[in-house]
Amino acid sequence: MGRAFEFRKGRKMKRWAAMAKAFTRIGKDIVMAVKEGGPNPEANARLRAVMQNAKSANMPKENVERAIKKATDKDTANYKEVLFEGYAPHGIAILIETATDNNNRTVANIRSYFNKCNGTLGTQGSVEFMFDHTCNFRIAKGNLDPEELELELIDFGAEEVFEDEDGILIYAPFGSFGSIQKELENRGIEILSSGFERIPQVTKPGLTPEQVADVEKLLEKIEEDDDVMNVYHTMEESAE
């Protein structure tokens, strides 16, 4: 198996435990998708993808419909996607994806978390290059063979296809999202969920339990912030 498989295994069940937090993040995704491409999912591929994710997360249909209606209101603020970069204690690089309607608030909050936990908020480009920006799709296995599917999707950008207990996962570079989404839809393959991840090119092993706790303290503070969508880091994670 490749790096995407190991990355997924290491992160599984570690984050996003709170259902309410997941719903809040999906709601923001819906607003951004509607503002960008309109409220009709048939004509808005990004909105289709978010609605699939909402279904996968068991978000009630009425919540989704309410979020779409709210997003069409011209008075509803749009969210700007902002990337933050920095270092936790012990040389661990951290990359933070946010969606905010108040950048000054978000900057101040993120900076305070780094300061309180002996980390350092970096400048643009300081750690982003350490991560590969990828897209992923989860589909039901059905009668599909992952190895055959991988060969068939290579021309559309797929780099890694593997099976886990929840179905088949497809990983590809960030820019291949649209072509793979379109090909899966053309084949009538149901997309259960999809998204984007940043996979560290190299992870740092050998931290003591105390050092891991230092890093985890910062990660938890960041992840609790309502403006934060995803957090990635270069600390080697256990698959347990």
CATH architect. name of the largest domain? 2-Layer Sandwich
User: What is the fold named in CATH at topology level of the largest domain?
Assistant: Alpha-Beta Plaits
Largest sheet strand order: 3-1-2-8
Q: Structural class, from helix and strand content?
A: alpha+beta
Mean pLDDT over all positions: 91
Regions with pLDDT < 50 over 5+ consecutive residues?
Answer: 13-17
Overall form: globular
Oligomer: single chain
Rg from C-alpha positions?
A: 18 Å
Report on the structure:
By secondary structure, this protein is α+β, with helices and mostly antiparallel strands. It folds into three domains: 16-72, Integrase, N-terminal zinc-binding domain (Arc Repressor Mutant, subunit A), CATH 1.10.10.200; 80-128 and 201-233, 2-Layer Sandwich (Alpha-Beta Plaits), CATH 3.30.70.980; 130-200, YebC, transcriptional regulation domain (Alpha-Beta Plaits). The chain has eight helices and eight strands; from the N terminus they run H-H-H-H-E-E-H-E-E-H-E-E-H-E-H-E. Strand 5 (160-164) and strand 6 form a beta hairpin.
Brief overview:
By secondary structure, the chain is an alpha+beta fold. The chain has helices at residues 3-11, 19-37, 45-56, 61-72, 103-116, 146-153, 177-186, 209-223, and strands at 80-88, 92-100, 120-121, 131-139, 160-164, 167-173, 191-200, 228-233.
Record keyword descriptors for this entry.
240 residues, alpha+beta, Arc Repressor Mutant, subunit A, Alpha-Beta Plaits, 4-stranded antiparallel β-sheet, 8 helices, 8 strands, 41% helix
